Amino acid sequence: MDYEIIFYHSGKTAETERLLERKLSRIGLERKASTAAMSPSELAQCLKRALSRSCAALIIGGLDGSRQSADSILSVVLAPNAGKLRSERLLDENGNEAFLIRSGRQCIILFPDETEIIEEMLDKRMLSEMKKFFDLTEDEDDGPSIDEVTKELRRHLSGMSPAGSSYALKYAEKQKRELKLLKILFISLACIGAALIAAAIISLSI
């Protein structure tokens, strides 16, 4: 299922796109397009295009309470279909608001232009509402967390440490034995050389 983002007087476009893709992909929603609107008429046109090809339109920004705020514009644009719409205003504990408008198998969501607030609203309420509305299930992350992987790696490395030390110790002992053998061989060769020189001197003096 697809959704589209409409940025209305919004500045944090890339950051918001990344957040929504990360959150919504977990429930099976994929971003189809992103557009921007700077005026009420542009907002209405963008919304019309989005709803003609996607199941959800997410409007980011423009919730300033003015006559040109996103919620005010939508109340005018959607007035002819008001009887078919289910609209809900959502508030968090800090008074930040979002709007969820549903009709048939489509929905419109209005978010403020703050990624932290969007993420909090998604986690606390909006994701569960969207899952119920579209009959979606959230992908469970069965893989280990990065903390678990890090702990396991450290444990594994610490377990290898004694073995590594033992190997280094054995290697050092081996080198020590080889040096000892070389020293003995050198002394032996020196003794043989001295004996040969002595024999040569004796043979010359006879």
Walk me through the structure.
This protein has 206 residues and is an alpha/beta fold. 55% of the residues lie in helices and 19% in strands. It contains 5 helices and 6 strands. It has helices at 13-24, 40-53, 70-77, 115-134, 146-205, and strands spanning 2-8, 30-37, 56-60, 86-91, 97-103, 106-111. Strands 2-1-3-6-5-4 form a 6-stranded mixed β-sheet, sandwiched between helices. A hairpin with a 2-residue loop joins strand 5 (97-103) and strand 6 (106-111). Helix 1 (13-24) runs parallel beside helix 4 (115-134). The longest helix has 60 residues, at 146-205. It starts with a strand and ends with a helix. 20% of the residues are buried.
Sheet-strand content, in percent, reads 15-25%
Overall radius of gyration: 38 Å
Percent helix: 55-70%
Largest sheet: 6 strands, mixed
User: Strands across the major sheet, in which order?
Assistant: 2-1-3-6-5-4
Total strand segments: 6
**Straight-line distance between termini:** 112 Å
Unreliable runs: none
What is the strand and helix layout of this fold?
Blueprint (H helix, E strand, L loop, with lengths): L1 E7 L4 H12 L5 E8 L2 H14 L2 E5 L9 H8 L8 E6 L5 E7 L2 E6 L3 H20 L11 H60 L1
Parallel strand pairs: 1-2, 1-3, 3-6
Antiparallel strand pairs: 4-5, 5-6
Helix pairs in contact: 1-4
Key terms:
alpha/beta; 206 residues; 5 helices
Give the structure's gist in a few sentences.
The chain is an alpha/beta fold.
